[in-house]
Amino acid sequence: MDVSGYLGLFGEPGRALTDEQWIKHANHYLTPNLFALNAEYLTGSRSEQWLRMSYRPGPGAFNFAQLSGGSIAEMLDQTATHCGSLVTGHPCPTLSITVNILRGGTTKSYVATGRVLKLTKTNAVLAADLDDDAGRRIATMSLVSQFVTDLTRLG
Asked: Which residue has the higher pLDDT, 155 or 117?
């Protein structure tokens, strides 16, 4: 993974990108965990504070016939925290998370929508929903993240 490319999503370089450019850049520099879930950033809006991503997890993400709870949590967490990053320009690592699994995930593809619920100077309250390819809601989550403002810590 090209860490320097991924870091281009944050700080001044990331804020200088349009929403569409940020999405394209993020897709070009997927992290290993997003690559493993066959993730794709679809669209997002800084002004409206949301981000949509798709996932096509491989067989390792399933427990027998259903998507594992860990895979569900990972997709929701990644969507929400990257939504926070798109909106704020900061990495948004998770401090606490609550996931509500509503039904088993049995399809091959999923769409997650993240959104910002509240921003402070140092934290964000974020949320995300995960739907299967038939449009059924699989899970919801909310989380609190803390901004990483010193980007030298990441590289």
From this structure: 117
Q: Is the dihedral of CA 12, 112, 37, 23 positive or negative?
A: negative
SS3 content of the chain, % helix, strand, coil (to 5): 35, 35, 30
Query: How far is residue 120 from each of residues 45, 52, 123, 124, measured CA to CA in Å?
Result: 19, 23, 5, 6
Q: What is the pLDDT of residues 73-110, one digit of tens each?
A: 999 999 999 999 999 999 999 999 999 999 999 999 99
Q: Are 94 and 141 in contact (CB under 8 A)?
A: no
Strand, coil or helix: what is 84?
helix
Which of 147, 61, 66, 148 lies closest to 101 in space, CA to CA? 66
Q: What is the DSSP letter of 123?
A: E
16's CB contacts (< 8 A; 6+ apart) are none
Q: What is the spatial distance between Cα 45 and Cα 18, in angstroms, rounded to a whole number?
A: 9
Q: Which residue has the tokens 């594992």?
A: 68
